[in-house]
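Technical annex, item 7. During the second reporting period the consortium partners agreed on a shared format for inverse folding records so that results from different sites could be compared directly. Each record opens with the tokenized structure and is followed by the designed sequence. A conforming record, contributed by the partner at site C, is shown below for reference.
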């Protein structure tokens, strides 16, 4: 079965380009942590405020973003997100002139608000641009380009920032590019996918059951975000702190891991054309749990297990997202997606990892992502059981 139709091909390509943009913006944070920690002489706990500020924006503005998109449509939601993204990026110029961490945090919060609008628009929209049966595979393919953005950011910026580069330069360039993309979206008409009459007339009992499914999906997606963002944010600090690699080498290893992550999403999108997404998620969640146990063992095993985990976790976000929205009509998908896009607040858990690292060891904080992947495993088991029920 085709991923999409000729009617939706151009909108699907344009929407997929957004996945790259926010992947790049989010992955920069994983290099900024160590860069600001060294340039401003702050602790891991203090540097974790970079993640806390950015991902708190998701929690505070996901529902308003969903309301905006429900009223004005996906295209205006995308344009609003892009303009906020660009504004936050360009504000790095006066932020650098001020030169304090709070000044940069304000810029990152504005970018976070913009990313919330983008993700709340694009994730559910990608699932709608084609046959319902291939919605999960379609979202995984789009998310693969998110992985490409994530992989390129540490590779390109690791050398630049750790060699004394000015942090305003990449953000200024990002701001210009994002404004150009926003102008394209103002000129393109995206089709609004509307709910069908049968879905709109669903009985109340069915609606209640879907509500419970969304809650479980929300918990699983939040747990995944806790694990994924915490690992990415901690990666460079962990390898540099353990003496495994220099800052630049650690940034390159993170880029390698994120290329593996991207490859995992491309592979996952293909596999899910033949294997039920819930079963793929079950296998990958079990793999991530095993990897985190390997990391906690320490030594060389920790590095190998940490990098291997990127392959297993690759399909988790789009698969959990799509499985959670499965069965909802188009209008409910807009509302539910706004709740699901609150889950990147899980990135704030990196603050807890920082506290553990500052007061115990660099290995022990990995109990946080282990707990997250165990929750995803429970969700996958539940969804797999429903396939055979």
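Designed sequence (site C submission):
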């Amino acid at each position: 079965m085709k991923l999409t139709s000729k009617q939706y091909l151009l909108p699907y390509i344009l929407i997929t380009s957004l996945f790259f943009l926010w992947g790049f913006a989010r992955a920069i944070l994983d290099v900024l942590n160590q860069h600001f920690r060294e340039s401003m002489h702050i602790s891991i706990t203090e540097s974790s405020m970079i993640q806390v500020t950015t991902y708190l924006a998701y929690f505070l503005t996901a529902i308003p973003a969903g309301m905006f998109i429900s009223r004005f449509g996906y295209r205006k939601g995308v344009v609003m997100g892009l303009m906020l993204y660009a504004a936050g990026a360009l504000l790095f110029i006066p932020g650098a002139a001020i030169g304090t961490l709070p000044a940069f945090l304000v810029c990152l919060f504005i970018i976070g608000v913009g990313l919330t609008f983008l993700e709340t628009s694009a994730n559910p929209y990608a699932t709608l641009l084609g046959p319902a049966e291939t919605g999960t595979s379609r979202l995984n393919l789009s998310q693969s380009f998110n992985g490409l953005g994530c992989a390129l950011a540490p590779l390109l910026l690791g050398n630049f920032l750790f060699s004394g580069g000015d942090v305003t330069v990449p953000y200024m360039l990002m701001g210009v590019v994002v404004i150009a993309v926003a102008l394209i979206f103002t000129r393109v008409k995206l089709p609004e996918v509307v709910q069908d009459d049968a879905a709109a007339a669903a009985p109340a009992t069915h609606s209640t059951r879907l509500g419970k499914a969304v809650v479980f999906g929300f918990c699983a997606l939040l747990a995944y975000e806790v694990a994924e963002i915490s690992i990415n944010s901690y990666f460079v600090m962990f390898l540099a702190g353990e003496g495994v690699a220099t800052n630049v080498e650690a940034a390159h290893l993170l880029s390698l891991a994120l290329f593996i992550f991207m490859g995992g999403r491309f592979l996952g999108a293909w596999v899910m054309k033949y294997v039920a997404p819930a079963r793929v998620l079950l296998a990958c969640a079990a793999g991530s749990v095993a990897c985190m146990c390997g990391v906690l063992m320490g030594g060389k095993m920790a590095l190998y297990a940490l990098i291997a985990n990127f392959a297993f976790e690759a399909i988790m976000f789009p698969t959990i997202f799509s499985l959670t929205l499965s069965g909802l009509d188009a209008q409910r998908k807009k509302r539910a997606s706004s709740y699901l896009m609150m889950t990147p607040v899980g990135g704030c858990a990196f603050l807890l990892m920082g506290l553990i690292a500052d007061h115990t060891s660099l290995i022990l904080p990995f109990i946080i992502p282990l707990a997250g992947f165990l929750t995803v495993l429970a969700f996958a088991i539940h969804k797999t059981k429903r396939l055979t029920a």
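The two ends are 25 Å apart (CA to CA). The chain has a mean pLDDT of 87. All partners now use this format for quarterly exchanges.
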